Amino acid sequence: ALAAGNRWITTAAQMGMGFILPFALTFIAIPLETFVHTSRTVIGTLTTGLLNTLAGILRVLGKGAEHGGKALINLYDLVIFAPLWIEQRFTSRRTAAGAEAIASPAQQDVSQHDKEHEEKDDAMELPHSAWGVSS
Fold first, then answer.
1. Mind giving me the DSSP string for 18-75?
2. What is the Cβ-side half-sphere exposure of residue 75, based on CA atoms within 13 angstroms?
3. Across all residues in the chain, what is the average pLDDT?
4. Which partner from 14, 91, 113, 128 sits 20 to 30 angstroms from 72, CA to CA?
5. pLDDT level of residue 106 (50, 70, 90 thresholds)
6. Residue 116 to residues 16, 105, 106, 111, 119: CA-CA distances in angstroms?
7. In Å, how far from its chain's centre is CA 124?
8. Burial of 34 (0-12, 13-18, 19+ CB in 10 A)
């Protein structure tokens, strides 16, 4: 008797589910199907936007690194210019002073050869009597 008295609860629950479940499927399943169908487009659009944003950020970072590198090179050139200029000035003075004081043997031979030719040219301009020739 107790079991027969509780049976109406099960029957009422099944009747309620039979009445409510179609509405639940209508209001939940159809929008869910539409969401699944359109999610491909939505996810594709979101991914495209995300990748374009990432590309823009990386482009800005890349250009910043490029210009930062050029700026560092220019800064290095500015800092190193004065010591290199001073070194070049002292080296050129030392080289010029050393070249005047110490001539290489090849330069001495050339200067000796030039002196001999100058003496011959001077002798050509002398009168014939200076040559020891009697006319």
1. HHHHHHHIIIIIHHHHHHHHHHHHHHHHHHHHHHHHHHHHHHHHHHHHHHHHHHHHHH
2. 6
3. 80
4. 91
5. low
6. 135, 17, 16, 9, 5
7. 72
8. exposed
Phi first, then psi, for residue 121 (nearest 5°) are -65, -40
pTM, full prediction: 0.43
What pLDDT shows up at residue 34?
Answer: 85
Distance CA 4, CA 1 (A): 5
Q: Which residues neighbour 131 within 8 Å (Cβ) at sequence distance 6 or greater?
A: 123
Q: Alpha-carbon distance 47 to 26, whole Å?
A: 31
Secondary structure element (H or E) that encloses residue 81, with its range: helix 30-101
Alpha-carbon torsion, ordered 70, 71, 76, 81, to 10 deg = 100
Q: In whole angstroms, what is the distance from residue 11 CA to residue 5 CA?
A: 11
Rounded to whole angstroms, how far apart are CA atoms 88 and 113? Answer: 34
